[in-house]
Amino acid sequence: MSGEDKPGRSGDTGIAVQEAKPTLKKPPLYKVVLMNDDYTPMEFVVEVLEDFFYMSRQQATQVMLTVHTKGKGVCGVFTRDIAETKANQVNQYARESGHPLLAEIEESEG
User: Fold this and answer.
1) How far apart are CA 72 and CA 33, in angstroms?
2) Residue 87 near residue 51 (C-beta atoms within 8 A)
3) What pLDDT was estimated at residue 18?
4) Are 99 and 41 in contact, with CB atoms under 8 Å apart?
5) Which terms does the UniProt entry file under GO BP (predicted)?
6) Which helix (H) or strand (E) holds 102?
7) Least confident among 5-9, 18-22, 26-30, 71-75
8) Model confidence pLDDT, tens digit, residues 23-65
């Protein structure tokens, strides 16, 4: 058997192949939202925002005031897994600290 007769070693097969780039889609994003309640101290909410969402004191105070006055406030926007993890961490920490603070996730528009 010569080199030309071996399978997979022939020259041009006459087939044109164009490699297609896969179209990648960004994952959907989710907002972590704190819900207002009448029992959780404002300072605790600020602490949660600083510790779990790495906000400055000023940013955390602004979000806390939004939660207090509007009923809820956005802590951050993340992919689903990260948003769920952060919401669960906040809820667990609040329960362990004896507060009814509730974090939920909502799908982000865009």
Assistant:
1) 6
2) no
3) 73
4) yes
5) proteolysis
6) strand 102-107
7) 5-9
8) 899 999 999 999 999 999 999 999 999 999 999 999 999 999 9
Tokens found for residue 3:
């080199």
In one-letter notation, the amino acid at residue 106 is E
pLDDT above 70 covers what percent of the chain? 86
Amino acid letter for position 110: G
SS3 (DSSP) at 36: coil
Q: Which amino acid is at 3?
A: G
Which residue's structure tokens are 């907002």? 31
Residue pair 82/5 in contact by the 8 Å Cβ criterion? no
Q: Which two tokens stand for residue 9?
A: 């070693």
